[in-house]
Amino acid sequence: KHNLTVLNEFILMGITDRPELQAPLFGFFLIVYVVSVMGNLGLIILTMIDSRLHTPMYFFLRHLAFTDLGYSTAVGPKMLTNFIVGQHTISYNWCASQLAFFCIFIVSEIFILSTMAYDCYVAICNPLLYTVIMSSRVCQMLVVIPYVYSVFLSLLMTIKIFISSFCGYNVIRHFYCDSLPLISLICSNTYDIKLIILAFSGFNLVLSLLTILVSYMMILVAILKMNSAEGRLKAFSTCGSHLTVVVVFYGTLFFMYVNPKSSHSFDTDKMASVFYTMVIPMLNPTIYSLRNKEVKNAVGRTWKKYKIFLILQL
Fold first, then answer.
1. Which of 2, 175, 273, 289 could form a disulfide with 168 if both were Cys (CB 3.0 to 4.6 A apart)?
2. Which residues pair with 12 in a beta bridge?
3. How many C-beta atoms lie closer than 10 Å to residue 90's C-beta?
4. What structural domains and CATH numbers belong to the chain?
């Protein structure tokens, strides 16, 4: 038993403790983070300035890019800093802030992905009523509710953890302040905190995944009823990018939390965490840009306008 103490900072173990890997990993993740920021910011700006992308689908895509940018930025800069400094410390307040912002954006992303699945369902199964069902007010509510809920859940979990009594040991076995590694440092009773995390995590996963599964089952039924191959191809192209993003995102989460702990090491868990905190935010705008003709056309139109603007300035 450690004596109770007031902690001013924590020590992050990081991704690896091998000195020869620090520089290569810093370079790799710097490129990943820069590409992620540029891609997501580009999607946000593109869907705002191009009038042809002012549709519910791209409204949700803008918020998906915002959440990707949010949780990768909550983790990325501090992780990159730790590669190049000697001490991998993080202050008590910044650790709490990192946990809070990460939870806000990751929970929001889960429900925005499920909202996008519902949007695909309406677009394919009820095309004539699409603009009525997915009105501007409905779209705004479908993103406001997840944001409000995620802020409530994040504050509840962060406050419960950081009002607890920590032991003298302050080494976090992770590269960022996550809830479970922090709970292992608490000396007081953690039953309530674990129950809150388990209950809300189960609720978030079941509700979002059920929405996605039901939406795509209805989409599949609608596609099978279509007579023309052109109609089926158009339906697949409508939801293909979203389905790819969902498979990558939920596949990583299931790998981390569904596999028995004995079947994979702590280092494997960290690599999976790196994938969904840094790599997935980079992949999402790439997937939507490469697989979506409307996005590629919007990029072309914006680039032409930019070139014309430069010519006029000269």
1. 2
2. 172
3. 22
4. 9-313 (1.20.1070.10)
Q: In this predicted model, what pLDDT tens digit does every residue of 118-157 receive, in sequence order?
A: 999 999 988 889 999 999 999 999 999 999 999 999 999 9
CB of 187 closer than 8 Å to CB of 4:
yes
**Cα–Cα distance for residue pair 288/39, rounded to 1 Å:** 10
Residues near 61 by beta carbon (within 8 Å), at least 6 away in sequence: 43, 47, 116, 288
Cβ atoms of 18 and 83 closer than 8 Å: no
Q: Using CA atoms in the order 174, 180, 182, 186, what is the torsion angle rounded to 10 degrees?
A: -140
Is 38 within 8 Å of 72 (Cβ atoms)?
A: no
Q: Say what angle helices 19-49 and 293-313 make with each other, to 10 degrees.
A: 80
Task: Please tell me the chain's helix, strand, coil percentages from 3-state DSSP, rounded to the nearest 5.
Answer: 80, 5, 15
Q: Which tens digits make up the pLDDT trace of 81-129?
A: 988 887 788 999 999 999 999 999 999 999 999 999 999 999 998 888 9
Long-range (24+ apart) CB contacts under 8 A made by 184-187 are 185/10, 186/161, 187/1, 187/2, 187/4
Structure tokens of 68?
């990707």
**Whole-model pTM?**
0.88
Between CA 193 and CA 141 the distance in angstroms is 30
**Token output for 75:** 């983790």
Edge-first strand order for the sheet with 171-172 is 89-91, 9-12, 171-172
DSSP 113: H
Strands (DSSP E) contained in the chain are: 9-12, 89-91, 171-172
Which amino acid, 213?
L
